[in-house]
Predict the structure.
Amino acid sequence: MTKMKFPYNEIVLEHFRDPKNVGEMENPDAKATEGSPVCGDMVTIYLRIDPKELRITDIKFQSYGCASNIATGSIITEMAKGMTLEEARRITWKQAAEALGGLPSIKMHCSVLAVGCLREAIKDYEERHGMVRERINTDEAVVMERLKHVMNPLTGLDMVETNLVKDMTIEDGVIEVTIDLPSDHQFAANLRAEVLEKLDALWDIQEVKINFTD
Ligand code: FES
């Protein structure tokens, strides 16, 4: 019998078999969930921040992705722990892939996904603490850009691309989004929570209303 050959090196396999910093964090100071448009996989990163030094004191991740994604989540959380937000933001997917001793080229998007998620979690912290450098007024483009980060669980693609956003208005600091699903759909509650999470940290928004098509 021929022995099966793994496309991954030993470092990747080690981080895949025994990933560091895995799990959910209770009451995190910031978090982000990102999905890959390439494969539909998802990763969530949670941060605990020392507000004085703006340093990451704890970090955890959950991955619904492949071995590369789990290994990258493990390595970047190890790299980011103890760094300032500024330092952690500068971690690139190339550095993550290098720290893993290389990834197969068709798996590079998996580390792009994990690094992108870390940057979004940092951004989430900054938004929640009014640290955003240039304050962009929330308009339709800003909202749609954020909704592109909410996955449609029916297809694994984002909710904008899959036409789940039936209607969206912004008026006097209130965003109203209508999702093209009935409110008793099995994914309705999940989508509501994710849309709220993406929109309620916007600095000039007081309320987010979510409707379904019934
Ligand atoms: Fe989807 Fe790796 S194939 S994250």
